[in-house]
Design goal:
This protein has ten helices and 23 strands. It is α+β, with helices and mostly antiparallel strands. It has two domains: 5-261, Purple Acid Phosphatase, chain A, domain 2, CATH 3.60.21; 266-368, no CATH class.
């Protein structure tokens, strides 16, 4: 595979909608497009990672393929998309065994995976038929249309005022980038901390914005105005409190807003609550904690010297090697009547999200029916 660049004029569109890292959650994308009233006068740009880590990877891929038949929809390649395509094109028994083994693990983590869904549609079982000789050749033959769609996805989309790429560009010499391995542009970890700046807006996905948060945990798009970089990955499919973000802008990048969707029930707060002045987020890429003590349902830990309480079941490991993944002690600012999304409840306290921000709500609440939101 080589880096491919699509140049596109967006001047005729009233709005530009951007989504990234759908990860098999096509139903959330449909919900966002309906909420945004997406139409033919808008451009929709999908910057990669269409599949994996979600409940309906094959259906999501086909939904994006259906959208892409319209001239105002522009899907791009993600590292997971290219990785899956590359693995399926290697027929060696060793590769097949390793991929099938990982697919079984993915099923346990996320409940589904692309290869398992493909095999099921072919009348095969991931557990029983994973060692079938020539399996990947059969999959390529049966799903040639779907895999061909992934294969032709561009790496970069350049417009008058934007670069769109899944991981991130190292510089703006686009012609030079056409000579490098596309994986380096699609999987560019911790991109905002690399100190880069651009003359056009660059919109990237891949690295969940929650991993940049050291205190208050929020999943909304992050905008570095001085450097002209926008990170939009809300952690959909990767985190239990993650979301799918839809950024809405204009062709010149003068105004920005966003919507998000996630699979959690809504509640209406009945009590007021003040926010913490200090808080800590423990992201999954920095999970090491020091255990101070265990309580019946909680653990008191230190994360880089900051002492905080976490639900006991979030504490993993053993003596001397304790870890906690994806947790904050932030207390949300809440007023009676506020609508929150309840992620889970622990020891009678609701862990919720309010306007992209995750935290605890200790007050009373009532459930809200989906059609009442």
């Amino acid at each position: 595979m080589q880096v491919t660049v699509k140049k596109q004029n967006l001047q005729g569109f009233e709005r530009v909608l951007v989504v990234s890292d759908i990860h098999g959650h096509g139903h959330l994308l449909k919900k966002l497009l309906q909420e945004a009233a997406f139409g033919t006068k808008d451009a929709l740009i999908i910057i990669g990672d269409i599949i994996e880590k979600g409940p309906d990877n094959l259906g999501t891929l086909r939904y994006v393929m259906e959208l892409a038949q319209e001239p105002n929809v522009f899907p791009l390649m993600g590292n997971v998309d290219l990785w899956r395509l590359t693995l399926l094109e290697d027929d060696s028994p060793q590769n097949q065994a390793e991929v099938i083994d990982f697919s079984k693990t993915a099923n346990r983590w996320w409940g589904s995976n692309l290869i398992g869904e493909m095999m099921k549609e072919m009348g095969l079982d991931l557990e029983k038929d994973g060692d079938r000789p020539g399996l990947f050749k059969e999959i390529r033959s049966h799903f040639g249309k779907e895999l061909g769609f992934i294969r032709q996805l561009p790496t970069i989309m350049e417009t008058e005022h934007f670069y769109f790429v899944h991981g991130g560009l190292p510089h703006e010499k686009i012609r030079e980038l056409e000579e490098i391995n596309p994986f380096s542009l699609l999987k560019n970890d911790d991109y905002l901390n690399k100190g880069l700046s651009f003359s056009k807006w660059q919109v990237v996905g891949h690295w969940p914005v929650a991993l940049y948060q050291k205190d208050i945990l929020q999943h909304g798009p992050m905008m570095e105005k001085n450097r002209k970089i926008i990170a939009v990955d809300g952690g959909c499919g990767v985190r239990g409190d993650g979301q799918l973000n839809l950024v809405i802008t204009d062709w010149e990048g003068k105004q920005f807003s966003h919507l998000y969707a996630m699979e959690k029930p809504c509640i209406r707060a009945l009590d007021a609550q003040e926010a913490f002045k200090k808080a800590r987020n423990i992201p999954y890429n920095d999970p090491a904690v020091e255990l101070v003590r265990k309580e019946e349902k909680w653990a008191l830990v230190k994360h880089h010297g900051y002492e905080m309480r976490i639900p006991l079941h979030f504490l993993q490991g053993n003596e001397g090697e304790w870890r906690c993944y994806n947790m904050t002690d932030y207390r949300l600012a809440v007023q009676p009547g506020d609508v929150l999304q309840r992620i889970f409840e622990h020891d009678g306290i609701a862990y919720c999200k309010k306007n992209d921000v995750c935290g605890w709500y200790e007050g009373r609440y009532e459930m809200i029916k989906e059609n009442e939101v």
